[in-house]
Hints:
It is a single chain. The chain is about 30% helix and about 20% strand. It has helices at about 15-20, 65-70, 75-95, 155-165, 190-200, 245-255, 255-270, 275-295; strands at about 35, 40-45, 50-55, 55-60, 100-110, 115-125, 130-135, 140-145, 220-225, 240-245. The longest helix has 20 residues, at about 75-95. The two termini are about 40 Å apart. The relative contact order is 0.11. It binds zinc ion (2 copies).
Amino acid sequence: MTTLRDLKPTKKQNVKEITDELGLRMTNKYDWRFSDESGTYLIFEWLDDMLEKDGEIYFLDQATDWAEKNRSTALTVQINRAYAVASVILQAYYTKAPLNVAIIEGVRRVVGLRETSEAHLRQLDLQKWYPHHRDENGYIVVIRGKPQPDGFGAYEDDQRRAKLTGSPPPPPPSKTVELTRTAIYDRDPQVVKDVKRRAASGCCEFCGKLGFPTPQGTYYLEAHHVIPLNLDGADTVKNVIAICPDDHRRAHFGEDRHELRDRMIWDVLHKLYPDDTEYYEALDLQSAQIRKSEKGPTKLEDVRIDS
Ligand SMILES: [Zn+2]
Ligand SMILES: [Zn+2]
């Protein structure tokens, strides 16, 4: 019999390996879930959120709850990710489809009011998981390796529940349940680590000013993608700069944001990586296109790198 302990991932598959294995298209947008029109669903779940009872291994879909509870303290990316994962589970639930689950193990801790986490191991479970009827608290129960029974009707069940509790009936099942409002992009924790090492002095890589001191004895800086991820910028140290909050906001919202971007490319990053002139010429082109299209980064990435 398989136990929870047997599910511990033994390697760190990257996300692309996992999507390739399932024939899913890997997109730049990575919010812990993937799906396609053919009904292949993939989510990422922490091993320590999984439970075991009477020989069954399962987890409860509490992502929406989590997002509601942590709305004021969690990062926007975390809130969006929770909604995104919940929407895929809901979709599988209503369409009686199996879920592919990649199991994650790593370090989760609370820093200040926020939960920060880092995946150390990540592996696709070869068994499918199935969303079953909700438990007494209304959480969808997702069970490993146990298909839903023949008479399973999620929508009818939800309507019955709604009548009993007097709450509004659920929305009719649609082909795509989309609860996410904002796109989120993968951040490689290694990139942040490397940039942090590069800016170990605590000085803004753009203006040279020392970041303000934090109670932890570090100097506060933020990581900024010079070509933003939502405009096909790469998540690599060669595209990321450690800057003070002033410069960061200016790079996003300043009148001179386009000039700032070009200066970051040539005066900072190219000087750090002088052998990569071709790379920066390509960034320069992208930068010119951003200026022309007047699109640009709107949201701050919200990555502090001093801690
Ligand atoms: Zn600065
Ligand atoms: Zn930024």
